Amino acid sequence: SLLQENLMDFPSVDLYDDDVDDTPRVDHADLARKGYKAKVCPLGVDMVQFSTDRDGMKMQADLAYYMKEYQKAKVMYKELYMRSDCNSLSVRRDVAECLARSCLALGEFREAVGLWGEIMEGWAGHDDQRLVVGQLRIDIARQEGDWGEEVGATICNMIEMHNTLAKYWGWLADWYRGNGEVVKEFWCLVRAKEVGRMEGVKSSVDSGQMGCRMKQSQVEQKLKQKIVEVVCRDFRDKIEEEEEGVKEFEDLGTSVRMKKVEEALTEQKVDNGTNEEDLNVIKLFEEKWFTFV
Predict the structure, then answer these.
(1) Is the Cβ–Cβ distance between 281 and 268 less than 8 Å?
(2) pTM, whole model, 2 decimals?
């Protein structure tokens, strides 16, 4: 047979080898991981060699900001902002925001707000950009303690663009508190807590803190209960519509009045040019979201 022929050709072959190889195996990959040493790069601005072109200056300014050398970062960002080769819209928007945040870190709030206005006028072309720039305006306002109409209108516009982020409702609650409007503050707290619950474990607000503020609110208890019921009903209706596969969401009872309000809000300019425009944005927002206040 073929097996016999093979055995005849290789008489030393053992078909049933019981020997066990106890030779220890070397895990070279594990040894390489244990022996790896990360390269440590110098962090001092003066210890790193940067190119003198636009990108090199931007990296140098970014490093200064990272090292909390805000005055140095501001000087470099401003020089970069004035350079003739800083002509790309995306680059100018990025540098302008970096310059504004350097001013914010230095407590130069008015200069930071001025740069924010330039960005809004020239380079905030779509909702994602407006949300990022809006975040900058709110950061300036919260650090400065500014509760003016421009700030309120900015938050309202941000919620209109993205009403399912709990922290925006929390910011609006803070804004109403700063203006002494406790009922609207409470309404926003309820919204923030409910949206945060839908966000799950990665909620953008502290639900415990929201609940504590709701308990401590000076709003009359019956009104509190009514607001909670309305907000919770809105969320239940929205969930039911999504489960039923409704393609077009009609907000707050599908009334003609609310549709008109929503259309008017959409048509509002986001540049917040005058105090009257800001007040109008806030008014329309309140008519939409606060149904009986």
Answers:
(1) yes
(2) 0.72
Tokens of 126: 């779509």
58 Cβ contact list (under 8 Å, min separation 6): 80, 91, 95
Q: Are 238 and 249 in contact (CB under 8 A)?
A: yes
Q: How far apart are CA 165 and CA 149, in angstroms?
A: 21
CA neighbor of 133 nearest in space, from 282, 272, 26: 272
Tokens of 278: 């800001």
Nearest to 152 by CA among 279, 50, 57: 279
Q: Residue 141 and residue 192: Cα distance in Å, rounded?
A: 20
Half-sphere exposure of 245 (CA within 13 A, CB side): 0
Which tens digit of pLDDT belongs to each residue from 9-40? 555 555 555 555 666 777 777 777 777 776 55
Q: Give the span between the Cα atoms of 45 and 63, in whole angstroms.
A: 7
Within a 13 Å sphere around the CA of 116, how many CA atoms are in the beta-carbon half? 29
Structure tokens at 87: 């002509």
Amino acid at 234: D
Q: Do residues 233 and 114 touch, judged by C-beta distance below 8 A?
A: no
Residues 25 and 98: their CA atoms lie apart, in Å, by 54
- As a whole number of angstroms, the longest Cα–Cα distance in the chain is 104
* Segment (H or E) for 182: helix 182-199
Report the candidate in 235, 227, 228, 226 with the shortest Cα–Cα distance to residue 197: 235
Contact 217, 182 (CB under 8 A): yes
